[in-house]
Each structure stands twice: as C-alpha cells, then as structure tokens.
Amino acid sequence: MEDLFHQLYSNGALLVLWGALFCHLILPFPREAHPAILWHKFAEQLADKVNTNANYNQSLISGTLAWLLMIVPMLVVLIALKPLVWQPQLFELAFLLLAIDWRNTDKFTAQFVAALAREDKEQARMLLKPIINRNTQPLSLLGLGKAGAETLIMSYGRNVVGVMFWYAVGGGIGAFIYRMMVELARAWSPSRQRFSPFGIPAIRAVAVMDFVPLRLFALMVAAGQRTQYVFSSLKQQAGSWPLPGPSWLIVSVGAKLELSLAGPAIYDGKKAVRAKLGGRIAPSALHIAQLQKLLAWRMLAWILIQSLLMALIYQGI
C-alpha cells in the first residue's frame, strides 16, 4: 500500500486532476465571477467591431481571423509562461480548476427542477436565460423542460467530460483552451442570424474538439439497460444533427430515458428548424432529476476510468 501511495504521489498529472476536483467541490467559482464570462463579453465586443461584412465569404474570413486572434495569442502566452513557474503542478492545477465546472450545473439543476415542479415558468426562464442563446420568453413548460435537459447534458459533457479529456491530452493548458473555445463558440453561435456565417469557424473548431470525448461519453451513457435501443436511435437520428459529438450524446441520453429532446427553437426572434432527437416523453422536473442522476454516475465512472488510464500511462502502475 505504501508503494502504491508513493507511485500515485509521484504521478503529478493524476494528483492535479484529483486536486482540481476536490478544490472545485470545496470552493467552486461562482458563474458570474468565472473568467469565462469576461472572455465571453470580450468576444461579443470584438464581434461587434469586426462582424460587419454582409458578404458570406468575407464574413467567414472575418470569423476565422477573429477566432485566431482570440485563441492563438492566449495559447502562446500560456505555453511561454509554463517553464517560468516555480511549481509546474500548481500551474496545471490552476488552469484545470479554471476550466472544469460541474458545481454551477448542479446548482442550476436543483433550482430549475424546483421551478418546474411548482410550474414557475418565470423562474425557470430566468435561470435559463444567461446560459442559453435561444429566446426563453416564448417557452412553455414543455419547451423549458427540453431546454433545461439539453443544457444539463451539454454542460456536463463539455464542462466536465470534455475538460478532463483534454487535460489528459494537453494538460492544464489543453483543458483551459478547450473551455475557452467552447465559450467562444457559444458567444458567436451561428444559430443566431447576426453570427452566421461569422461564428461557423468557432463552431467547427469545437466540433473537432468534441468529437472523441462526447462520443466516448455517449457510449458510456448507452451502457446498461436499453443499450440496443440506444444504438438503434443513434443509427437513425445522429446524422440529422449538424454537430457529431453533441448529436451522439443528446441522442444517447434521450433514448436511454425515452426523453423527447431538441426540435425547433427560437433565436433572436426567428424560428430555427432543428431535428427532434431521443424518445417521446416530454421532460418534466422528475425526468430532469433522473437525467442528472444518470449523468452524475456516468461522470463518476469516467473519472475513475480516466484516473486508472492516466496511472497506467504515466506511471505504469
């Protein structure tokens, strides 16, 4: 046992992962104070300055250059800073802690489930408004349930699973850059007309980063009961969604719990046609609570499996 402890102690990457999870559990960043919010606002201000061309190709080029302007300098600075710090593990810990976030999602879910349970549509809309890009005011209880379920799925998928995956691949810098890319894609989402096609490069970049972790997590969700039905649904529905990683995850969760997800949504006052995914049951407060429980257990399994793989790869335990 003592030898195992020393081996784990010498494995800095694994200690950083568990240290970040523990620190986030004890003292999470409030959503309003998170650096991602400042990054999101800066991205919107930059878009106001450079997203002014009505020509499709020129707007696409502007979006690509703006994305590079936001991501590349930050990446270069972080890489240059790393050799200068006195303790590399603390550097990794700091940026992984800035990237990972499940406590705010847990808090949102608890409040949202309570609002849906008492049919308080105004409270549910208020909780969703700062998190999603779509218009929340026209949403009925059914629409709020769908939007809340999708928000929960993608928040856990990207802010926890995706962050941990890219930490394993690229360390704290990889995890942090991924999180900032996700925020950039949300700020410039082309689902809103004023960011189409300007935001397409940001969305495509995140789609590439999401492809492996979200699909792997979708397979973990599929494991257990109703696995055959989940794979059948993936075969039938996944191709109808434009983003391959999120499509697998949303379909897997929807089919697993038979929840009706996605469908048309309103962005900036205009209706966007989106495919319907999952099953036929409209998500209610009870279903969202069940959804959180399912994802929480799958995330725990992901953390344990990733920890074991990191131990085997980095230390040879």
What's the structural blueprint in terms of helices and strands?
Blueprint: H1 2-10, H2 12-26, H3 35-50, H4 56-81, H5 88-99, H6 103-117, H7 121-128, H8 141-187, H9 200-222, H10 227-237, H11 244-257, E1 260-262, E2 265-267, E3 270-272, E4 276-278, H12 285-314
Antiparallel strand pairs: 1-4, 2-3
Notable characteristics:
317 residues; mainly alpha; two-stranded antiparallel sheet; two-stranded antiparallel ribbon; 4 strands; 71% helix
| Strand proportion | under 5%
Structural class: mainly alpha
Please state how the strands of the largest beta sheet are arranged side by side.
1-4
Number of strands: 4
Helix/strand order: HHHHHHHHHHHEEEEH
- Mean pLDDT level: 88
Shape: globular
Residue runs with pLDDT of under 50 for 5 or more positions: 4-10
Share of residues in helices: over 70%
Indicate the radius of gyration in whole angstroms: 20 Å
Q: Number of DSSP helices?
A: 12
Main sheet properties: 2 strands, antiparallel
User: Kindly, what is the distance between the CA atoms of the first and last residues, rounded to a whole number of angstroms?
Assistant: 12 Å
